[in-house]
Amino acid sequence: MSAGDAATITLPKWSIVLPAIGLVALVASWGRDLNAVLLVLVCAGLGGGVVAAVHHAEVVAHRVGEPFGTLILAVAVTVIEVALIVTLMSSGGDKAATLARDTVFAAVMITCNGIVGLALLAGSLRHRVQRFRSYASGGAFAVTLALVTLSLVLPAFTTSSAGPTFSGSQLAFAGVMSLVLYGVFVFVQTVRHRDYFLPDEETAAHDDHAAAPSGRTTLTSLGLLLLCLVAVVGLAKAASPALESAVEAVGAPLSLVGVLIALLVLMPETVAAVRAALRDRLQVSMNLALGSAMASIGLTIPAIAIASIWMSGPLVLGLGGKELVLLALTAAVGTLTVVSGRATVLQGAVHLVVFSAFLFLTVTP
Q1: Residues 6 or more apart from 197 whose CB is under 8 A from it?
Q2: 3-state SS of the chain: helix, strand, coil percent to 5?
Q3: Where do the TM regions start and end (predicted)?
């Protein structure tokens, strides 16, 4: 393919208009109480931002190749998610003491059960049986379990500080270890064993028939992707007071706010993972889901460890008994899924049932 062929690939107009709508909605709603009109505008901006973000992520991924494309989307979303968590914690006082724990745990459950389950179910319904590289996804799942255990399970059992919290030194250790472990995984995924995380040769060869975008188009898509993610996360923050009011109105636990924020922020990865599975690229779906889980923990914990230096109030990280049981079930089910390297409707249904149980028990603990 010549450079001229690549230059003919242009972005559709809607992929440029939708990020602009999202930013307009963000500016119009920022710092204001949402009336009916603003709420509709925020919802439209969120939906448009998600659709456009997925499109631009696919453009970038097609240019840079896997697994860099999924890594860019996962890290970009997580960096902005971390900024959102820290912002909400700094302005929420004691009421936000559990926000980081609830949001990170929700992200783990959404990615490891919700996104994985939807991708497995959608892909298997179309292709009956799908295959992925168990040694790649198994390693990613092992890193995820290690990160969530070090960051969210151990605080419930340590004794240096009162309650399910870390002492200052323990939080610093957890933050450093999270960064180290996530950094090692990224090195393995992108350098040392990059081929482990690629789709199978037949699928990759089929995808290579599509012309790659030019460098200019790719940079444009990258910039628009970041704008989309800023709009999505910013609109999620703008909608958070309405979410809190709705949660209080129905008498649901405050932890539901963290779950709803995580659901909104992770919509781009969810849509991208399902679309990849429908194209019989289940390895890409697994890269997205598990990569997002690792990034959520590996980047959030160090960030809040640093932010805790100037933030007052407690920082509750330890999970409760119900959450520990759900995490143990996720570990068992996820291990059995990735070990086989094959996916059918059954695995997708099991993951979605566990995810449904997490949502139900969040509302009715």
Answers
A1: 66, 67, 133, 136, 189, 283, 287
A2: 80, 0, 20
A3: 12-30, 36-56, 68-91, 103-123, 135-157, 169-188, 222-243, 249-267, 288-312, 324-341, 348-364
Query: Looking at residue 164, which CATH number applies to its domain?
Result: 1.20.1420.30
Domain interval for residue 87? 3-363
Asked if 100 and 85 touch (Cβ cutoff 8 Å), the reply is: yes
Distance in angstroms (rounded) separating the CA atoms of residues 176 and 270:
29
Backbone angles phi, psi at 277, to 5 degrees: -65, -40
Place of tokens 């990735």: 338
Domains identified in the chain, total number: 1
Tokens for 183, please give them. Answer: 């950094």
> E strands of the chain, at which residues?
130-131, 342-343
319-355 pLDDT tens trace: 999 999 999 999 999 999 999 888 899 999 999 999 9
pTM: 0.81
Cβ pair 318, 157 in contact under 8 A: yes
Q: How far is CA 303 from CA 95, 121, 230, in A?
A: 19, 34, 18
- Scan for tokens 């298997």, then name that residue: 124
Contact assessment for residue 239 and residue 38, using Cβ atoms and an 8 Å cutoff? no
3-class state of residue 102 by DSSP? helix
The Cα 118–Cα 248 span in angstroms is 29
